[in-house]
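ARCHIVE RECORD
Type: protein–small molecule complex
Small molecule: NAP
Source of inputs: curated submission
Record status: active
Notes field left blank by submitter.
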Amino acid sequence: MIKFQLNRRNTLSLLATAASWPMLAGAQTAAGTTTAATAAATAGATTQPATRPIPSSGEALPIVGLGSWITFNVGNDASARARCAAVMAAFFSGGGTLIDSSPMYGSSQDVIGQGLRIGHSRGESQGQKPSSVFSADKVWVAPGSRGPAQVEESRRLWGVPRFDLLQVHNLLAWQDHLPMLLRMKAAGQLRYVGISTSEGRRHDEIEQIMRSHAIDFVQLTYSLRDRRAEQRLLPLAQERGIAVIVNRPFEQGSLLRSLAAHPLPGWAAEMQSRSWAQFALAFALSHPAVTCAIPATTQVAHVRENLAVAARPLPDAQQRQRMAAATQDWV
Ligand SMILES: NC(=O)c1ccc[n+]([C@@H]2O[C@H](COP(=O)([O-])OP(=O)(O)OC[C@H]3O[C@@H](n4cnc5c(N)ncnc54)[C@H](OP(=O)(O)O)[C@@H]3O)[C@@H](O)[C@H]2O)c1
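STRUCTURE (tokenized, with ligand):
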């Protein structure tokens, strides 16, 4: 995990700068229109997020991370990049550490690198204590020997000395890339090795790799709508001591759009959920095999709302059942 300098004070300064740009001011106003829900939902967000241990090392990882697919693929649009930097600033300021990306996500890696540099230089100029990023990226290249070159290019874009975690994206050419990543880890060029899938794809193969290779992480889809991982992969991760990163906890927003047609049950407050987003995220995070989830967002208010879930008690087994039963016809 590398340190860079970003904290509450320079975050506020970054957000103030961002707000002074016309497009971002608009974005904040748009966020402001949802403020009743968002303000209630983010109450408690200043508390540090809960952590869970990475089973292979015991290292504590904050349970809410940040995805970057689509949301950070903004090309060279300066104001959109500033908005991504503001999301990152709010994420770090709220105690988040793990950011997930991939060479598949267009300009996202470069946008993350820019956000890290902005945080670093602002912190440095103000002589402040560094915060931390847990860099989680992927290898996504056809079979052959191009894996190391892709990893090096990704590392250059992020501007980190080495990655904390590299995952074989969607198992693409995993027979080539997984041994490479394990060698990098053995040589100290990488801290953790993982594999990823989404939307229930290739679970049989994921299971075989989890059983036969010394991986630290598996990334998969798990949500109120898509619970397939409960059948074999989540119990297996617990059994084998493999950390689980949940992607698509909101099904790229479509789960939240389905739920929005229905009122949030009054009893959701008992489990500290003040919006459908918090309800859905709390459900995904409360499975005991899950180490963290990585919702993606373009909005500062939403990153705070998501982090707030990690600062409150998560639903227990009985509450999880109630959440699933109440929403099964709506998701
Ligand atoms: N195979 C793989 O390795 C794989 C596959 C898929 C995804 N992933 C990773 O997982 C990450 C997350 O998955 P995802 O991007 O597909 O979707 P997601 O995180 O399930 O949903 C993202 C959407 O949710 C909205 N959102 C976020 N927080 C919200 C809140 N508090 N209230 C209302 N809306 C909210 C965002 O809109 P706003 O911008 O308006 O907030 C965005 O449109 C990806 O970014 C990527 O890093 C990996």
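CURATOR ANNOTATION: Residues 20 and 26 are 10 Å apart (CA to CA).
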